[in-house]
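Many introductory courses stop at the sequence. We go one step further.
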Amino acid sequence: MPQGTFCNRTPVQTKEQLQEVLGDKGGKQYYKEMESLEVDVPALKAQLKKTMKSRLKTWLNSCMRCGLCADSCFLYIANDKDPKQVPSYKIQSTLGELVRRKGEVDTKFMMHCMDVAWSQCTCCNRCVMFCPMGIDMGVMFSYLRGLLFAQGFVPWEMKIGSGMHRVYRAQMDITTEDWVDTCEWMEEETEEEWPGLKIPVDVENADIIYTVNAREPKHYPEDLADAAILFHLAGENWTVPSEGWEETSLAMFAGDWEASRMQVQSVYDAMERLKPKRMVVTECGHAYRATVTEGPYWAGLASGKTPVESLHYVEWVAEALRTGKLKIDPAKKIKEPVTYQDSCNYIRNAGMADDVRYIMSQIAEDFREMIPNREYNYCCGGGGGLNGIGRYRQERNIGLKVKRDQILETGAKLVISPCHNCWDAIRDLEEVYHIGIKWSFLKPLLIEMVVVPDHLKPEEE
């Protein structure tokens, strides 16, 4: 069965393989090779027989084609209510058809499934909120992605992303030395303004172990400094691990379940090694889902829970405000109209909407809710890996229209978004549609308005 140099059924495992695939700019040769990539039907049949269990079969067979999922999907709305964008149609015409054919499918069909799985569903799970049968479309599309990945039918960027996790245990090529150097650099950068501030590495028995999104040390190291400042002001006993510091999982987006397990295990190993009381995940929704919600199952933990209690950053902020570890100067609250992007992964899938509203009550004078909101809020438009796939950029941009209209209806000029994918989508939304908004994580806003205890202020010269 012919396989290409770049597009094949072998996961990226080495730095050399990564460089080869990265060298195919934009995946031009990769996608050309995919057109000739034959389906390994016996392997696909065997995988279906081994993994297609009663829950998935029941969901596929119990769909009543009632259409209640249609208007729940932002992509259906953004595409002028195209019937082919109805969630039930999307899964029945891909996974459902693949099962009905018992794996007897060809290259053209698998490429169609790839296009649907990554450009027509972000696995946001909003449709399950409306399904009378409780069908979880996110789980089914994730399962489909896993089948496609195993056969080599995966977007170029996702192939690279899962390879990064296999090689570096991070979604980007950041070594342990790079990470530790960045921590030391940010500590040095802040020491003059914040005397005594430390970014402790590998401290055992700390109250908090803090884990991040690799994009922060790679592109936004100031985010790490901001986190350190707020932990410093709150008087937290915290640390970061030298290894196992990366929370995100492009492998999850890719459907590479072995790389997903390897990634999350590195975080759990850091917990076991350093024995912190709790973990705090940075402002990233899918990082929380990958490591806290899904991760225990990938790692085979019978409890279904992480080795230590784990919090998303909004939970820690809400706790710090409620307990007085952080105090807001009322005169420095946000005065302009502000709205908040509810992330699918820690609002809809982890129930943190109340913590978010408490934070907004403390920091904003003119908070305006998007309609709908909380667990019914629409996906940002770029989740599930869609933000980063060049092949589907136009589909992503069309999907952004729903979030654009939600924001415009609030009249807000600032959008707070404690999630990397949402932050990216809203940034790109402004670049595409020019609606005149700003966007921000929580950390830099909090630093501007938090009360600094006298003993932590720098001595005046």
